[in-house]
Design brief:
The protein has seven helices and no strands. The chain has about 100 residues and is mainly α. The protein has a single domain, classed as 434 Repressor (Amino-terminal Domain) (Orthogonal Bundle), CATH 1.10.260. Helix 2 packs across helix 6 and helix 3 packs across helix 4. The longest helix has 11 residues. It starts with a helix and ends with a helix.
């Protein structure tokens, strides 16, 4: 299951998560949220418009910023997958890492 799969799910709605963080921390808008999470405003915009899924690094930033559990953050955005998988987008790098181990 990858980001594209999530973008096609009806229940996946990252706007709920973004709006919840803005409300919880009394932020003015998406620009203030992007500053708080230390990401550029276009990242938040792309997430809002379902052009970009919320990745692991951003989810960790949200966790550190909000002190909410990863599970709670995932539930807010509608991601209820039971397992996560590492992407095979760069198989050459992965083979190299396995050979080194």
């Amino acid at each position: 299951m990858n980001g594209q799969f999530l973008l096609n799910q009806n229940e996946y709605n990252p706007n709920r998560l973004l709006d919840s963080l803005i409300e919880r921390f009394h932020l003015k808008n998406d620009a203030a949220l992007s500053r708080a999470l230390e990401v550029t405003p276009p990242v938040i915009s792309k997430i809002r418009h379902n052009k970009l899924p919320i990745g692991a690094s951003l989810l960790i930033r949200m966790h550190e910023f909000s002190e909410m559990s990863i599970a709670d953050l995932r539930n807010l955005m509608g991601d209820r997958r039971g397992q996560y998988r590492i992407s095979d987008k760069n198989p050459d790098k992965r083979k190299h890492m396995q050979a080194a181990a």
